[in-house]
Automatic annotation (TrEMBL):
One of its GO terms (biological process) is coenzyme A biosynthetic process. One of its GO terms (molecular function) is dephospho-CoA kinase activity. Signal peptide: none annotated. It comes from the Bacteria. The gene is coaE. GO terms for cellular component: cytoplasm. This is Dephospho-CoA kinase. CDD domains: DPCK. PROSITE patterns: DPCK. Its EC number is 2.7.1.24. Keywords: ATP-binding, Kinase, Nucleotide-binding, Transferase.
């Protein structure tokens, strides 16, 4: 049975050092931040879900997510924050589990 561990920490706490060491030892390392960015890229599952929910107002001229606008809408109300959390949690968790 495979074991899954999570590595967290603040800036300059050594996360990259640990993950590089694990890669050198042959372990698979999945960067959750990178996965989220891939899912939020134009056409990604998270991108599609956010645009379906909030509309094209969260996109820039190139059709990519405009993070400041997205952030403003999500954090403008507790209801939006809760919906965003649930929406993103499901998609991100599913993708991480698949990888």
């Amino acid at each position: 049975m495979a074991k899954i561990i999570g590595i967290t920490g603040g800036i300059a706490s050594g996360k990259s050092t640990v993950t590089n060491y694990l890669r050198q030892k042959g372990y698979q390392v999945i960067d959750a931040d990178q996965v989220v960015h891939e899912l939020q890229a134009k056409g990604g599952k998270l991108y599609q879900a956010l645009v379906s929910w909030l509309g094209s107002a969260i996109l820039n001229e190139a059709g990519e997510l405009e993070r400041p606008k997205l952030s403003q809408l999500i954090f403008s109300s507790q209801e939006n924050l809760a919906k965003s959390s649930q929406l993103q949690y499901d998609i991100i968790r599913h993708e991480l589990a698949n990888r």
